Amino acid sequence: MIGIPAGNDISAVRELQPGGVILMGRNAGTPAETRRLTQQIKDACEIPPLIAVDQEGGRVQRLVDGFSKIPSMREVGTKGARAVSICAMSVAAELRDAGLNTNFAPVCDVPTHAQDTVIGERAFSTDAIVAGLLAAEYIRGAGTTVLSCAKHFPGHGGVGVDSHQELPTFAGTIEELEEFHLPPFRAAIGAGVGAMMIGHIAVPCLDENGVPATLSAPIVTQLLREELNFRGLVITDDLEMKALPQNDDSVGARAIAAGCDLLLFCHAPDKARAALEEIKVRLDSGVLSQARVQDSLDRIEWAKKKFGVIAERK
Question: Rounded CA gap, 244 and 39, in Å?
Answer without folding.
Answer: 33
